[in-house]
Structure formats: C-alpha cells, structure tokens
Amino acid sequence: MKKFYPSLLMAVACMLSVGVVPTEGLCEIKEIHGADSSFRTGPIGICWGMLRGASGSDVQVLIRIRLLPEGDSPYAYYAVQAVHPLTKATQWVVPKRPLEKVNTASAPRESFKNLTGRRVYFYRPSAAEPELVVYYNSVPDTTPELSDAAQLEQYFDIAFKRLAQRQTP
C-alpha cells in the first residue's frame, strides 16, 4: 500500500502539469503589501491616518479607501480584516460591503495591540472570493497622527490627489 501513494501523487502531478485536470472556477488571489500610509493599486487609493482624542489616549486609526477619478474600478465590494501576525487569528473590522467612491474603516489604536495586521479585500461584482488583497503588517510608520478632524480630512485630500498623479506598476 505504501508504494501506491507515491505513484498516485506522481500521476496527479503529471495531470496537473499538462492541464488534464479541470481548473475552471479556480482563481488566484492577487496579494500586495501596502507598505506605506498612502498606497495606490490601479484605480484604488488607500490612505491611513490617526485622529487623536482630547485625552490623547483615545486614538482612532482610519483607513480611507477611495476610487481615484481616472477610471472605473473592476471591484464592487470591499472588506477589512484584522489579523494576528503569528496565530493568523482574524476579526472583521468591516465585513464585505459595497465599494463606494469614498470608504472609511476605523478602529481604536488599542485594537492593534493583538491584531496588528490589516487585510483589505476587494471583490468583483459577482465573486464570492476576493480577487485583490492589500495587506499591512501594522499601522504604517508614515501614518500621520492629528488632533483635528478637519486637518486629517485635508491630509486625506492632498494624499489622494498625489496618488491620482502616480502611475501604477
């Protein structure tokens, strides 16, 4: 019986390599590391900001997702998930919802103590699984922390204008 398993594995590997096994419905999820507090991929811009409360300890972390003006997005939905770096435990910050022109996910900075990472999922209109994932290992180091909401909105406007001018790879 032990000799049967290697032969079976070899046969399956050969069938996969020549395309005999049907792969319809299988899609690859494209994963991109966000890496910076302002990031662009195609017609989507993602910017991070922090809004400091009156006491200074109640800081809200905002992830602003905006469709950039020069093109239609192939994505109709998005979701944001918090992720533990070692155990990979997850918690939804924003469950799957329609992707509007401007979207915001916010969470207290305290929530980043255990679930430090964030994954932003983008879904095509009829897809159950995401096609694009932009992941962050933590709050980007370049994320500004402001005490005035109007200043944070001004920062977002400037950052998205800059992103709109960038060419995507």
In which order are the strands of the major sheet placed? Answer: 1-9-8-5-6
**Number of discrete helical segments:** 2
**Could you tell me how far the N terminus lies from the C terminus, measured between alpha carbons in angstroms?**
51 Å
Largest sheet properties? 5 strands, mixed
Topology, number of strands: 10
What is the quaternary state of this protein?
A: single chain
**The first-level CATH class name:** Mainly Beta
List low-confidence stretches: 4-25
β-strand amount: 35-45%
- Helical coverage, percent range: 10-25%
Question: How would you characterize this protein structure?
Answer:
With 169 residues, this protein is α+β, with helices and mostly antiparallel strands. It has one domain (26-165): Sandwich (Immunoglobulin-like). It has helices at residues 4-18, 149-165, and strands at 30-33, 38-41, 44-51, 60-67, 77-83, 90-98, 102-108, 117-123, 132-136, 145-146. The strands form two sheets. Strands 1-9-8-5-6 form a five-stranded mixed beta sheet, with no helix packed on it. Strands 2, 3, 4, 7 and 10 form a five-stranded mixed beta sheet that branches. A hairpin with an 8-residue loop joins strand 3 and strand 4 (60-67). The radius of gyration is 20 Å and the shape is globular.
